[in-house]
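Researcher: We're teaching a course module on how sequence relates to structure. For the next exercise, students receive a sequence and then see the predicted structure as tokens, so they can try to spot secondary structure elements on their own. Here is the exercise chain.
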Amino acid sequence: MKNILILLVLVGSATFAQKTDREKWHEKINALKTAHLTEALQLSPAEAERFWPVYNVYEQKMHELHRTKKKEIYSKIRNGVDAMSNTEANTLIDRQLQLEQKELQYRKELITALKKIISPAKIIKLKKAEDDFKRQLLKRYREREEKEKK
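Model: And here is the predicted structure for the students to work with:
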């Protein structure tokens, strides 16, 4: 598994040279996440071959949903909640709930598809591995920020 991680990092870093910093950053995180999830789930080659296309579609949907939230919800909140009318606030609340329902729908679709590919125990491990990865990523980010402040 360590060899997979090293390979993914090397392949990813070779691709980064030609892309913008933001693209590089996203690709590096995706490569690290792929390695982390593969190792945490202990996917066999056959499972990985079927798992990743399904998971990548889910990730793309979630990415688009996040962009929509950022555009439609977070930007309006940043522009000032105090200036919002009750009607505007209610509309924003309804839209946020719609987007959260969509997020749950995508998760359900993912789980339904994954039940045909991996065991239920691995599906549960997937959620834990995703959460662990986010925590590690935030920890690294905070540590980096602290170093840059010094």
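Model: If you want an answer key for the exercise: The chain is about 85% helix and 0% strand. Residues 48 and 72 are 35 Å apart (CA to CA).
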